[in-house]
Amino acid sequence: HLRELVQPTLAAGRHVVSDRSVYSSHFLYRAEAVPDTTGPVTDHELATRLSYFLWSSLPDAELRELADAGALRDPDVLAAQARRMLRDDRVRRLATEFGCQWLHVRDVATLDEKSARHFPEFTSLRADMQEEVVRFFVDLFANDRDVLSLVAADHTFVNGPLARHYGLAVEGEDWRRVDGLHAAGRGGVLGFAATLAKHAGASRTSAILRGTWLSETVLGERLPKPPKDVPVLPEEPPAGLSERQLVERHSSDPRCAGCHRRIDPFGFALEGFDAIGRARAADTTTTLPDGTAVDGLAGLRDYLATRRRDDVLRQFARKLLGYALGRSVQLSDEPLIDTLVQSPGHRAADLVELVVRSPQFRTVRGRSSADGGAP
């Protein structure tokens, strides 16, 4: 609400009046002065950029001391600080604000859209579902994991209730890392209950929602908007139809078939999970848009980690860079994104270091700069 209220006044730096208070846009938003020409940011601005990127908060004492000493403009010092901060517990904020928002599961802990009649246990599990994603991203950044583990990981983090939801045999109720997820039919973001539940209906799965999410969020594909007069599918399939058959009948409409051929097969491969991410028996065989035949999450996971590897890496790089810079990625950023994609080992902390060493992170665009020019 505050973003909608304040946004029109940001350029002029005006004050905003709410129902009871007066706010300055400079209090509500982290702002930098925009010079007439492109140039380096100050040490204190670098400290702020780095801290809000990795910790979503103000710089700590060590960053402030380095800024006071004029040391942060040394790229090696800046990179060393990024590495230090990724090993700090406060990297949880990066996991939450970047990881969960990128996967569109930032609100799963409070999601109130599931049918209590069909899924009475969801409310007690939803916070644990989101916590799994947070812990996975903390591990990704703090331990410098391969970014491809987002789709190919054979591990995750669960507590007792979530383990039982997944059908995993663990002792105790506390959070812990578990390995061998592939043998259990899961692994990576495709098997998170949070992503499976968020991209499903109130009482049934949705191959359309899951396929759209995978296409746009994981692979970075742009899909056209659906026609305005497309009928809404019922929450429960008619008698004699499975959820998949309901979607297939809907997708046969000539107005819709083109897009559905691009997205539905991804969702069909995930039909082995119900609307809150529990494993179930279902038809998960499908042919993907490029003609590749897959069966279930395992086949889809292998496809993403091999044939679509560069697309997965590029989408992660684009989202990480945009988050770090606090703006949309532009044409002039493509060479840097290429560098991120080609980073040996695709290690998460290495990508963070490449971002903070980049001219985009260490300089500020002047008012006269245009896309395609100097960063």
Tags for this entry?
375 residues; mainly alpha; two-stranded antiparallel sheet; 18 helices; 8 strands
What shape does the CA trace take? globular
Uncertain regions spanning at least 5 consecutive residues: 1-14, 370-375
Counting helices, strands and paired strands, the structural category is mainly alpha
**Strand order within the widest sheet?**
1-2
Q: What is the N-to-C succession of helices and strands?
A: HEEHEHHHHHHEHEHHHHEEHHHHHE
Number of strands: 8
How big a fraction of the residues is strand? 5-15%
Number of helices: 18
Largest sheet: 2 strands, antiparallel
Describe the structure.
There is one protein chain. The chain has 375 residues and is mainly alpha-helical. It starts with a helix and ends in an 11-residue tail after the last strand. The model is unreliable at 1-14 and 370-375 (pLDDT under 50). The chain is globular. Helix 3 runs parallel beside helix 5 and helix 14 (296-306) packs across helix 15 (309-325). The protein has a two-stranded antiparallel ribbon with strand order 1-2. A two-stranded antiparallel ribbon has the order 3-8. The chain has 18 helices and eight strands. The longest helix has 21 residues, at 122-142.
